[in-house]
Amino acid sequence: MFIGKAFAACTALLALTAVSAHAQTYPAQTVKIVVPFPAGGATDIITRIVAERLSDHLGSRIVVENKAGAGGNLGTASVATAEPDGHTILFSASGPLAVNKILYKNLPYDPEKDFIPLSLVAKLPNVLVVNPKTIPVKTVPDFIAYVKERPGQINYSSIGVGSSQHLAGALFDQVAKTKMNHVPYRAATNIVVDMLSGQVPTSFQLIPNIFTQLTTGDIRPIAVTSRERSLALPDVPTMAEQGLPNFESFAWFGLLVPKGTPKPIVDRLSDLISKTMDDPNVRKRMIEIGADPAKSTPQEFKDLISSEVVKWRGVIKDANIAVD
Questions:
Q1: Residue 32 in contact with residue 89, Cβ under 8 Å?
Q2: 3 state DSSP class of 169
Q3: Is 58 left (phi over 0), alpha (psi -120 to 50) or beta?
Q4: Are 121 and 255 in contact (CB under 8 A)?
């Protein structure tokens, strides 16, 4: 019996030593960050800003790989089954990590069980915007009154079913007691075209998708949907400031690794991401594209994912949202 216990203790010690040695030599090769969305979008742009500085801190080359498909599920699932050695990192968002768990019956991964969160890195509040020539309002109370006078006649756009834009619109209908029609698109560029033409005159958009049109005045911002004003649009009031105190909706982005990644590697990556997000240049570049820089501990990020699953489950159920 003593020999058995001694053997078990020895085995555990060897395993711990192997993990420690692995962490000391990490990274042993190029690190890959998988983005489950197409190149050129907000997620991709933020990833590359973060990856560039993180690479310097890590002392290793980092490559960004876009693996889009199935609302972000394809790329996210690929990291869930990757070798848990810190060389494959996931840069994902609220959709694949929270909303899709509710929308998809056969999700090929569990966002709360198959990953170890490292840190949140950005928040993108939705902003309620209108074509001022089509919907001549400037405040949330005026917008609510305008929509209520036209029940079922106002269309709002989003990047797809279950996107943060779609859910922000659904939540708004529930909170403000309005009734709008959701029009999903495949590309943000098409949303902008139809907003400018007045065909679909309103949206709850992510700031990077419409930043140019906001600066030219072709699209008017009415309110941001975060609790605090956006760093990118400091002059635009929040929903709470305009009479909807419980309204909050934003997209969020963060870095995760597969379950089973050794704790020393998780701790190191988490620490380096924190340093990256404290970098003034990183923060400046993110604000310039309409993103609010953020950071968190792994536990805080984990708690956010779980709370978002709970929050959006009720909204999705009440709005009868389903994927085809």
A1: yes
A2: helix
A3: alpha
A4: yes
CA angle 146, 236, 183 (to 5 degrees): 50
CATH architecture of 125-242: 3-Layer(aba) Sandwich (3.40)
> What confidence score (pLDDT) does residue 316 get?
94
116 has which bridge partners? 257
Domain boundaries, the chain: 2-19+28-124+250-319, 125-242
DSSP 76-108: HHHHHTS-SSSSEEEEEEHIIIIIHHHH-TT-S
Fold of 2-19+28-124+250-319: D-Maltodextrin-Binding Protein; domain 2 (3.40.190)
pLDDT tens per residue across span 33-42? 999 988 887 8
What is the spatial distance between Cα 91 and Cα 75, in angstroms, rounded to a whole number?
Answer: 10
Which stretches does DSSP call E strand in 102-212? 115-130, 155-158, 181-184, 202-206
Q: H helices then E strands: how many in the chain?
A: 12, 10
* Spatial separation of the C-alpha atoms in residues 22 and 12, rounded to whole Å: 15
Query: Residues 11-70: pLDDT tens digits?
Result: 545 544 445 555 678 999 999 999 998 888 788 999 999 999 999 999 999 999 999 988
Give the Cα separation of 35 and 47 in Å (integer).
8
CA–CA distance from 68 to each of 56, 141, 170, 202 (Å)?
27, 38, 25, 27
